[in-house]
Every structure is written in C-alpha cells, then in structure tokens.
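For reference, the entry.
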Amino acid sequence: MMSDTLRPPSEFVGALCISVAGTSGGVGVTTLTALLSDGLGARTGRPPRVFDHSGGGIAGRLRTASSSGESSVRDIGLHATALASASLSGSDRVVIVAGPDDDSADTALFALQRMTSVSEDHEAMMRTWERRSLIVINSISVRRDPRPVADRLAQSAPGAGIIALPWDEALSLPGPVDHESVTPATVAVVASILQAFGVA
C-alpha cells in the first residue's frame, strides 16, 4: 500500500535518475533496480543506463541491456544511510529498500530523514525529498507479509511515500527477471513507483 500523500514531482521534465539503496544485504536492491530499469525502458521506448555498485551483478537480472539513454537507474547497494552525503542532482529520485521487519524499516526512515538534515531549511527539504523518495518494504528474501510493517511506518511518517512489495516467487529465482511470471502485485508496485516519479 502506498502512502496517499505521494504525488508525482511536477519538476520532472524528461531525463530521470533513480538511485536504489538498501538497508542491508539481501533486501532486494538489485532485483528492484532491474525491475525499475526494465519498466522505465518499456515506458519510454529506450532502456536507461544502469550503474552497478558491485561491478556486474545487475547485468544478470536485466531483461534488456543497459543503453546510453538519457535516464539512468543506479544500484548503489547497501548504502541507505550514506544518502545524506551523496551528491544527487535535481532530477534524482531515491528508492530505499528495506526488509519486512521493524528494524530494517526504521533504518530506511532514518536514512530518509538524514537526507534532509544537511539543509538549513529542514522542513522544506523534507517536503522535497518526501516527493522524490520512496521506501519499499520488500519480502523478496523472506516469505512474510510486508504490509503490517509498511502500515506502521506510514503512521509514524505520514508524509513519506511507503509501498509494500509482497513475496513473489518469480523474483526469488536467479537470472534475468521473468516479467511474464511475476505477480500482478509486483507489476502494480513497479508501475506505482514509476508513476510516482513522473513516468506514465
């Protein structure tokens, strides 16, 4: 379930850079990066550039190869809490991936809050990043319903964009993501993320 307060950023005009970070290893950063890359390519007609923190792991999950398109998707791995010091351009959007447990979800929220703490106008920066960021509570590696954790986090941070990605067996398999086998819930989550970031 996605927070009702999430709205597509009005300043999106074309090129888009999505950074995907995780709160720990195994929460599904690489898989979600592949889903977003393939989804962005399918909607824009041109696969985005894909950057991989691990030097090649993402290539094995992609359905379509990375291109030299204007948009890009970055798998930055286990660096959610480092996003506050990252140099992100005005077109960047951030997805923080957490597991379906309270500790992981709280780490994701802490990372989102740190992204705003470097600004003198904390409240204005928080509103900006709430519109540019999403927290995905993901159960790729654990068969556990992520919705209760997502709902609790949404109550504690009502302005944040929070979405739950339920268990999908197709996402747990190695190799390129089989888009024909993923569940409708997975398709809906990817569509919701891209729509929230201004991609129809």
Summary: The domain at 17-196 is CATH 3.40.50.300 (Rossmann fold).
